[in-house]
Design brief:
There is one protein chain. By secondary structure, the protein is α/β, with parallel strands linked by helices. 40% of the residues lie in helices and 22% in strands. It has a domain of 155 residues: Rossmann fold, CATH 3.40.50. Helix 6 crosses helix 10.
């Protein structure tokens, strides 16, 4: 199978998986973000003017949108999963939600700030550079992006690569997909939320942090703060 076709299949599986999980999302996964996410969200919000227009990209069920609203800002949320957006609208009817994936962002200097939290781990290396450029284009001059990168702590990336290659998959180093087919079938055909299988039932890509920093800089943003916590690297990047 050609890599481009395979990546489209992985993208569609991600959309279907989140649609399947969406009815039970709030019950099974809850609202409260972890402490490091909260700390960086507060750092991000401190840099926002009053009543800013903010983009919540890859917003899912709106897990972080309430924090942005409570700080007194306007919020636009985008996600590829219609099911997750339905859950988000139930909780935050005042937010403008749109069904579109990160690759389809076409905003022009509309937002004072943007967040993309717990989402980029499902993005392929081919799409990372264009998505960073689209964030830069979406931000007003001087606008800021809060981005998280899922760290592959404890994951055997070379082993995952070799196992996926043995399955005949057109993978690159950093992709973790060797359990997707079996786990996806189990999760999407179950009436219960199989939390221990959900994470491996979906495409993941773990770029090096050096590569992430390069993509951000090449897109025309400069990193102003960065730190690790709760399994993620947290970055605040400002449009130059």
């Amino acid at each position: 199978m050609e890599r481009a076709e395979w990546l489209q299949q992985m993208k569609k599986k991600a959309e279907n998986l989140y649609d399947h999980l969406s009815p039970q999302y709030w019950i099974s996964f809850g609202l409260a973000p972890n402490e490091t996410h909260l700390a960086y969200l507060q750092k991000f919000l401190l840099g926002m003017p009053p009543k800013s227009m903010l983009l919540s990209a890859g917003c899912g069920a709106g897990r972080y949108d309430g924090i942005l609203l409570e700080a007194g800002h306007w919020v636009v949320g985008i996600d590829q999963s219609a099911g997750m957006l339905k859950r988000a609208k139930e909780h935050f009817p005042e937010v403008q939600y749109e069904q579109r994936c990160l690759q389809e962002m076409e905003f022009c200097e509309k937002f004072d700030g943007a967040i993309c939290v717990d989402a980029m781990e499902h993005i392929s290396p081919e799409d990372w550079p264009q998505i960073m450029r689209r964030f830069q284009e979406a931000l007003k001059p001087g606008g800021e992006l809060y981005l998280t990168v899922d760290l592959a702590e404890g994951d055997d990336l070379p082993g995952a690569y070799e196992r996926a290659q043995a399955l005949g998959l057109p993978v690159v180093i950093g992709e973790v997909v060797d359990q997707v087919e079996d786990a996806y079938e189990q999760v999407t055909t179950s009436d219960q939320i199989l939390r221990e299988r959900c994470d491996v039932a979906i495409y993941h890509y773990h770029p090096s942090l050096e590569q992430v920093r390069m993509w951000i800089e090449e897109a025309g943003m400069s990193i102003e703060a960065e730190g690790s916590g709760n399994g993620y690297e947290h970055l605040l990047a400002r449009k130059k």
